[in-house]
Design a protein that fits this description.
Layout (H helix, E strand, L loop, with lengths): L15 E6 L13 H16 L3 E3 L21 H14 L6 E6 L5 H13 L5 E3 L12 H10 L17 H11 L18 H22 L5
Parallel strand pairs: 1-2, 1-3, 3-4
Length: 224
């Protein structure tokens, strides 16, 4: 169920609240700027389809994307603002049975973890979950491109898909921290999307959704 479509009277019981967190940032020359948000929304949709006690909040389409500065279309609210947004949002959700933060953008993790740590000191403990992938395929590469081909092939310009930097992320981090993605990848891609396919995307989405559902089930067991 989508929270925005419900009335206050529809929430006569306290459901779990899933919040999709994304970004509006460059994803190479071939993927849309809203890729991370699209993925987070889809994972929340699958979670809610599996768990009838979950409602899905409207997505937050802006995040901490300063590392993508210098590429057209990127919008970022920065770490401090994202941390504050999550703090206040989760504080306002005390009437829900719990909060699940489904994050689609790796750059959001540091402020999200800081927010979660502070919330824990207040007696609030949201579940923070993010999908994982290979260390040499972290942005607009095979995985994300395959997922978008499965979800929205009309939004993927495969004729412009080209390899970027395929070194493992840990090797790139020193340059990324000082110069952003532009310092390590001319086209903004970290990975190789050239062989991406919808079938691979379907398998990746299934794996991510299964992991998310399991994590939520462990933290918030479904009441029978």
């Amino acid at each position: 169920m989508r929270l925005a479509d419900l009335t206050a009277a529809d929430l006569d019981t306290a459901p779990l609240l899933a919040i999709p967190l994304g970004a509006t940032e460059q994803h190479g020359p071939h993927l849309p700027l809203g890729t991370d948000t699209t993925v987070a929304v889809e994972l929340c949709r699958r979670l809610a389809a599996e768990r009838p006690d979950i409602v899905v909040a409207p997505a937050i389409p802006y995040g901490s994307s300063g590392e993508h500065a210098g590429f057209s279309g990127t919008l970022s609210i920065g770490r401090a603002a994202l941390e504050l947004v999550i703090l206040e949002l989760v504080r306002s959700a005390d009437e829900f049975a719990g909060v699940v933060l489904v994050n689609g953008h790796g750059g959001n993790l540091e402020p999200l973890r800081a927010a979660r740590q502070r919330l824990a000191t207040e007696g609030r403990d949201p579940l923070l979950w993010s999908p994982t992938g290979p260390a040499d395929d972290t942005h607009a590469g095979h995985g994300e491109t395959s997922v978008m081909l499965e979800l929205h092939p009309d939004r993927v310009a495969m004729d412009r898909a080209e390899p970027g930097n395929i070194r493992p992320l840990r090797e790139l981090m020193p340059q990324l921290r000082t110069g952003g993605v532009r310092a390590v990848s001319r086209n903004g891609v970290l990975g190789d999307p050239s062989a991406a396919s919808a079938s691979d995307g379907a398998r990746i989405l299934d794996r991510w959704a299964t992991a998310l559902i399991a994590a939520v089930g462990e933290r918030f067991p479904e009441k029978r």
